[in-house]
Amino acid sequence: MVHLNRQQVSLKEKIDYEIGEKTMKLDNIEKEINLICPICGNDQFSSLDVSIEELKAGLETNRIQCSDCRSIFTKEELLNENQEQIDNEVEQITDDITKQLDKEIKKILRKFK
Question: How many Cβ atoms sit within 10 Å of the Cβ of residue 30?
């Protein structure tokens, strides 16, 4: 059994936009989301089938156990149970990207005035 401090989903995005001959490089946006047990709300889990590295990159069928209530979920089930939180974070990242893009476009447009 491999113990995880937190089961996290990492959302990373590096975005380059080309406008004419200009390239805008937006900041790297990285967000980690702590997944929680849908039964007890704990965010501490153990991997039952594989190592931590294999769990992060591995199959959705790998099993994870909550360290408090001992409930067992597949990786896919835990992700599905936390989908609303993941969606909210993706929306926040999208808002951040939009703000950065607006700022960069305004900088470019000022040069043409």
Answer: 11
CB of 31 within 8 A of CB of 51? no
* Domain count across the chain: 1
Residue 18 pLDDT grade (very low, low, confident, very high; cuts 50, 70, 90): very low
pTM higher than 0.70, yes or no?
no
Return the sign of the alpha-carbon dihedral for residues 39, 66, 44, 49: negative
Domain that holds residue 17: 2-111
Beta strands in 1-113 (DSSP E): 2-4, 8-13, 16-19, 22-25, 29-34, 45-47, 63-66, 72-74
Residues 18-25: contacts with CB under 8 Å, at least 24 apart: 19/105, 19/108, 22/108, 24/101, 24/104, 24/105, 24/108
